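Q: what sequence does this backbone want?
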C-alpha cells in the first residue's frame, strides 16, 4: 500500500502562486505515474497534471503554462507549482499515485483563489 499526504494549499489572491507537495510512503517502489487532480464544488474531479517515473509530464489545457509538476524520487515527493492563479483554480486538490496494481489518493488540500 501507498499513503499520500498533501500539503501547501491555502488562500491566495488572483495572480498569486502556491506550491503543493505530496509525500508518498509505504510501497513506493510500486509507484508509476503520479499526478494531481482537483474537484471544484458541484463539478467532477479532473486531472490537472501528471508525471511519469521517467519524468515525462502532461497538463490539462486550462493550466498549461501556469502550473508545473515535478518529482523528487529521492524524497518520494511530487510537487505542483501553481502560478498566475485564477478564481477558476479554486478547488480541492488531490494527489494520485498509479501503482503496479491499483492506485492511491491523498486526502486533498483546499486551494482558494479570490479576486
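A:
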Amino acid at each position: 500500500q501507498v499513503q499520500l499526504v498533501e500539503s501547501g494549499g491555502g488562500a491566495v489572491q488572483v495572480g498569486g502562486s502556491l506550491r503543493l507537495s505530496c509525500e508518498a510512503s509505504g510501497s513506493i517502489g510500486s509507484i508509476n505515474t503520479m499526478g494531481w487532480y482537483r474537484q471544484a464544488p458541484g463539478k467532477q474531479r479532473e486531472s490537472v497534471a501528471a508525471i511519469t517515473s521517467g519524468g515525462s509530464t502532461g497538463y490539462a489545457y486550462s493550466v498549461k503554462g501556469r502550473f508545473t509538476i515535478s518529482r523528487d524520487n529521492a524524497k518520494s515527493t511530487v510537487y505542483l507549482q501553481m502560478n498566475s492563479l485564477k478564481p477558476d483554480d479554486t478547488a480541492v486538490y488531490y494527489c494520485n499515485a498509479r501503482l503496479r496494481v491499483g492506485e492511491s489518493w491523498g486526502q486533498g488540500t483546499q486551494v482558494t483563489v479570490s479576486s
